[in-house]
Amino acid sequence: MIIAVDGPAASGKGTLAAGLARHYGLPHLDTGLLYRAVGRAVLGLENAPDFEAQAIAAAQRLDPSDLDPAVLSSQALGNQASRVAVIAEVRAALYAFQRDFALQPGGAVLDGRDIGTRICPDADVKLFIVAEAWARTERRARQFEARGLSVDRQALHAQIEERDRRDRDNPNGGFFPAEDAHLLDTTRLDIEAALRAAVAIVDGAMARKAKQ
Ligand code: C5P
């Protein structure tokens, strides 16, 4: 079974995807880490004339050992990731890794922006997670505060909005709900309630598929 989970920054998609993977005993790939790792490889080169070429080269030589969430989870790398994510050749270079992960025997859960539209248009179940911007800002702020970091909520909100805009407007991004995606609004749900809702969607979709 392949489960695709897409949504904007801090919508809860990563936590939900991890929870679904645990629930169904499937491996999980947070595809944002791929873009973050490429962004990290070209940090400081934003104004270099060969920024795009360097980002493409970094995507082509990406190694799974580069995908350490502890190294890649900062807000700055999220923003940097969205800059390299607009480059078509970067997306193309990262495609095979994601596709191979999805197609492993038994299936997988992948979360990102374009899983249901571009990486796994054939996924068994597609979830598109949404949450209002204020709730996403508050969640991200609490994650940073839990790590002992101080947070300027207004600046964080502005960064999240800017990243949303860049991702939405990315002509190569595929960031929109697939026609057959199930929308899940987590604005007023805690993580347990959101996971229960996601499991109900997946179980319902699989039961309908089994009847077909
Ligand atoms: O999900 P996360 O916030 O880690 O993603 C970082 C950035 O990587 C996103 O803002 C987006 O620009 C890019 N991304 C993407 N396609 C994906 C996953 C992430 O374009 N499948």
CATH class (first level) name: Alpha Beta
Instruction: Give the amount of beta strand, in percent.
Output: 5-15%
Neighbour order of strands in the largest sheet: 2-3-1-4-5
- Which residues sit in consecutive blocks of at least 5 with pLDDT less than 50? none
Summarize this structure briefly.
The protein is α/β, with parallel strands linked by helices and 212 residues long. The protein has ten helices and five strands, in the order βαβαααααβαβααβα.
List the helices and strands and how they pair.
Blueprint: E1 2-6, H1 13-24, E2 28-30, H2 32-41, H3 51-60, H4 69-72, H5 75-84, H6 88-102, E3 108-112, H7 115-119, E4 125-130, H8 133-146, H9 153-169, E5 182-185, H10 191-211
Parallel strand pairs: 1-3, 1-4, 2-3, 4-5
Helix pairs in contact: 1-10, 2-3, 2-5, 3-6, 5-9, 8-9
This protein binds cytidine-5'-monophosphate.
Cytidine-5'-monophosphate (C5P) is lined by residues 9, 31-32, 35-36, 78, 81-82, 85, 112-114, 163, 167, 173.
